Amino acid sequence: MSNLKCLLLGGTGFLGINLCKYLYANGYDVTIYNHCSVRFKRFKQLFPHVQIIDREFSSETKESLIDILGNIDVVFHLISTTNPSNKNVLYDFESNVLPTIRLLDACVKAKVKKIIYFSSGGTVYGIPRYIPIDEGHRTEPLSAYGIHKLAVEKCLEYYGRTYQLNYNILRVSNPYGEGQNPFSNQGVVAVFLAKALMHQPIEIWGDGSVMRDYIFVDDVIIACIKILNYQGKNSVFNVGSGVGYSLQEIIRIIQKTTGSILDINYLAGRVQDVPANILDISLMKKEVKWSPEITINEGIKKMLSSWNYAKKEFEVRV
Questions:
Q1: Active site residues
Q2: How many domains are contained in the chain?
Q3: Domain containing residue 253
Q4: In this structure, how many other beta carbons lie within 10 angstroms of the beta carbon of residue 40?
Q5: I want to staple 117 with a disulfide (CB 3.0 to 4.6 A). Which of 58, 77, 126, 292 is the partner?
């Protein structure tokens, strides 16, 4: 299916860049949509045949989106204007949910073959009733971010049921890896690893016992490609490692990998931080024969080797 024309909404972000690398290398026709990315120049050098659309997602109309989608087969929806620490539900809905509804209207009108939405396995479930968490677990998000992600999921279900829009939802756990910006304050592994290299203290909300499911970005991209070609009846899939690590365990792995000792400042726990989140990935294994291949130890080593680090400055390679 490498002749497909693909639109990557949020294509210059961490996951978007890695997905673009794969699609571009495998002969897909790729268009990137993002707003005022500082990476555009570098991006164009690496991917000279990739079309870039520099627009503001929240300002698009249904008609303008139909124009963009005119020759697009598949939409990868990775765009998000906020992160899990955001507390402004109104902003989340105005900048993410409402523009996505206009996008779905446009996808129906333009007869897009498929839309793949990157949701959040770490936030939509809320406090787990059991571990590991499967796709049938109740969705009770605690954060504004999780609420908006779930709202988009429900909109996709509606458009699939009402207009037969072909879609899949990937509930991704906590991705990390090459191309991740350690200064964005998102991504525990990236932030902690950078702090270790710069010999700076790190901040932990709570006592460090919070457990999460971390997955290397290459495994996420392969999962996405598997779903791109999926024709089965399931719409929602967990994408994670299926293994949990506490923040303290992540710190120990980073210290061992870098040879550094991290200075830790403990802060009061946050309401939106659930005590544990580990995904059940058996559905992905069964339906598309996918399993993550890169362990947390291997992934952190790969991430470290991908950074050019000198004089306390980073160049994060695309």
A1: 145
A2: 2
A3: 177-213+242-278+294-316
A4: 14
A5: 77
